[in-house]
Amino acid sequence: MTIKSEQHGKNLESFILKNNNGMSVTILNVGAIIARIEIPDKNGKIENVTLGHNDPFNFIDGPYYLGATVGRYANRIAGGRFVIDAKEYKVSLNKPGFMLHGGFEGFNRKFWQSRIIDIYNHTSLELTLISPDGDEGFPGTMEAKVIYKLTEKNELNVQYFATTNKATVINLTNHSYFNLTGNLENTILDHIVKINADKFTPTNNVSIPTGDIASVDGTPLDFRTPKRVGDRIEQGFEQLKLAGGYDQNFVINNYNSEAREAATVYEPTSGRVMEVLTDQPGMQFYSGNNLSGIPQGTNGVYPKRRTGLCFECQHFPNSPNEKNFPSVILRPGEVYRQTTIYRFSIKN
Questions:
Q1: Residues linked to residue 194 through DSSP beta bridges, in sequence order
Q2: Residue 285's closest CA among 345, 243, 346?
Q3: Distance of CA 67 to the CA centre of its chain
Q4: C-alpha 5: how far from its chain's center?
Q5: Is there a contact between 144 and 71 (Cβ–Cβ < 8 Å)?
Q6: Catalytic residue among 53, 101, 126, 175
Q7: Sign of CA dihedral 52, 54, 59, 63
Q8: CATH code at position 248
Q9: Can you give the chain as a three-state secondary structure string?
């Protein structure tokens, strides 16, 4: 596996991780962003399978978090408020009535320090960020780290670490939009998805969890056996109507802090398969319902509605305010750890 870097001016740098199977991954030092993932299809044709921009600077101000590492808290915090040890904290309300993906200047908009490292004789890319006390209202100075490793098994291994000097909350994830057709003008409705989840967290009309944990039985959210994304997306199920399609947090089975299968995606025309493994309790499955023409899209394409799928491995949205959700509090002396693996293969 090799890593090459390229300077783009104004402190922006990209890194290309490449293995011997024709797979490559481009990472930016802004937002620790996955800018491209290029993999062969069943005929050996190598194509990019993630939505993005031709100009890497466009990732900084893009409205859809394309490929970004989001934090300090991915997804939503209702009211921009939470309590730790009887003290209330107020964070930025970058959306009406809630914080989304870390606020106005979240981790996705910050420049990370980068270095190429060797872990067990495997070359990897390490990106580090210092988030000061009070950043977007969050308590504590936090040091966050993301390590990207590409293997000869066509696995992109993403590891997250963080420490803090005050008790705080944390929830990091990656926000890549995948389209395994390799033609980013195609919709993702023909992708076949399996999600290893018996339950999900229902939400209100602004996607804030109600606090309940509900069964997927008998609903269009039951992906325990593979289903075509487009088959049920327009059904009159309340949660689909509220979100305009799929945009729900699934409670991934067998949560025990070990990486296990969360989802599998198969695209029949290309033969590409992507498996998502995580050690997190949840995963937001999003069908790109709000995409609507992004200037300077990848390969000149303007991503449109439902042209990308997100699989955001995470703790549950609004967990700081829901006592029955797994805790997201990080305290001094503790180390936050998270692993997500994207594994690619071919099915003929």
A1: 264
A2: 243
A3: 7
A4: 23
A5: yes
A6: 175
A7: negative
A8: 2.70.98.10
A9: CEEEEEECCCCCEEEEEECCCCCEEEEECECCCEEEEEEECCCCCEEECECCECCCCHHHHCCCCCCCEECCECCEEECCEEEECCEEEECCCCECCEEECCCCCCHHHCECEEEEEEECCEEEEEEEEEECCCHHHCCCCEEEEEEEEECCCCEEEEEEEEEECCCEECECEECCCECCCCCCCCCCCCCEEEECEEEECCECCCCCECCCCEECCCCCCCCCCCEEHHHCCCCCCHHHHHHCCCEEEEEECCCCCCCEEEEEEEECCCCEEEEEEECCCEEEEECCCCCCCCCCEHHHCCCCCCCCEEEEEECCCCHHHCCCCCCCEECCCCCEEEEEEEEEEECC
pLDDT at residue number 298: 56
Residue type, 136: E
What dihedral do alpha carbons 261, 100, 172, 155 form, nearest 10°? 50
pLDDT cut 70: percent of the chain above it: 97
Residues β-bridged to residue 50? 178
Q: Residue 318 — pLDDT band, cuts 50, 70, 90?
A: very high
Please report where in the chains the tokens 């269009």 appear, as a residue: 220
| pTM (predicted TM-score) | 0.96
Domain total for the chain?
Answer: 1
Q: Quick one: tokens of 226?
A: 């593979």
pLDDT at residue number 299: 54
Q: Tokens 């939505």, residue? A: 51
Q: How many CB atoms sit inside 10 A of residue 141's CB?
A: 16
Q: Which two tokens stand for residue 141?
A: 């100075």
pLDDT higher than threshold 60 for residue 297? no
d(CA 249, CA 317): 8
Residue located via tokens 């800018």: 35
Active site annotation includes 312: yes
Task: Tell me the pLDDT tens digit for each residue of 184-214.
Answer: 889 999 999 999 999 999 999 999 999 999 9
Range(s) of the domain holding residue 277: 2-346
What would the pLDDT profile of 224-235 be if each residue is shown by its tens digit?
A: 999 999 999 999
What mean pLDDT do residues 48-60 have? Answer: 90
136, 155, 312, 322: the catalytic one is: 312
